Amino acid sequence: MHWTEIDEFLTYLVAERGRSRSTVEAYRRDLRRYANDGALREIACLDRAAGDIERHLDGLRSGGFAAASIARSAAAIRMMHRYLALEREGVLDVGARVESPNVGRSLPKAISEDQVAQLLSSVTGDDAVARRDSALLEILYGTGIRISELTGLRLGDADLDSRLIRVLGKGSKERIVPLGRHAAEALVRWLAPGGRDVMSPERWRNRTDADAVILSQRGTRLTRQGAWLIVSRRAQLVGLGDVVHPHVLRHSCATHMLDHGADLRAVQELLGHASISTTQTYTFVATERLFESYRAAHPRAEMVPR
Predict the structure, then answer these.
(1) How far apart are CA 162 and CA 145, in angstroms?
(2) Engineered SS bond to 157: which of 166, 168, 181, 305, CB 3.0-4.6 Å?
(3) pTM value > 0.70
(4) What kind of fold does domain 3-97 have according to CATH?
């Protein structure tokens, strides 16, 4: 397979489809693995058939790749063949004949409202670190935004008077997200004297650091890894280290909203899901929690199947 065909397709994903850098890099790895498959290396990309794709996917299964990784590889390969068929006259879309691997339903992991309260109460004191960590946790749970969206927030993205933040999501798509009272108050405390200014250096390394809402103690924009460590440390303080990470707070936000009667479309908009089917996954979580409570409490619950 010619590398130019892969690079051309990946450029299309960025320029015309607005795919995120992380998605494009994952697809790049998948497609290069496909290109370097020893059993197919002598077959040009445009000459490959559906059977060649299926043999490659079977090889990934034999190699112990996770079902989700195989499904992503299949999606990347099928999408590239579809692109090449559209761009080149006489080329067949052989990927259309390949079925998407079934990875099963993976339900998001959410913690209870009491556990969330425990986590949020783990932050005590009024020093700069406590203010930052409180703002970080309150915003993650209160808005359901992704960890990368939080660390990417700029000062100009927060409208504290209206309790709104502007979030740059996947595919560089912007959305406006409301801040609840607790999240807004925590953010105000962090941005007030004695908070963010304590971590602000006399001289910024670059302009993006100077504009960052959440800072590290080194005076730079907090990284995803740094935010992950903060959440993990706070979770460990209250005995939740094994079940809590930043994405769990996103899942918990969505699940608890649905538990309290939120409209599915509103939750979709809040989380920035491109498809309603992604958001619908949380309805299965809420339903399963209901049945678990019923099975645990009702004397005749053994009649209810799992």
Answers:
(1) 18
(2) 166
(3) no
(4) DNA polymerase; domain 1 (1.10.150)
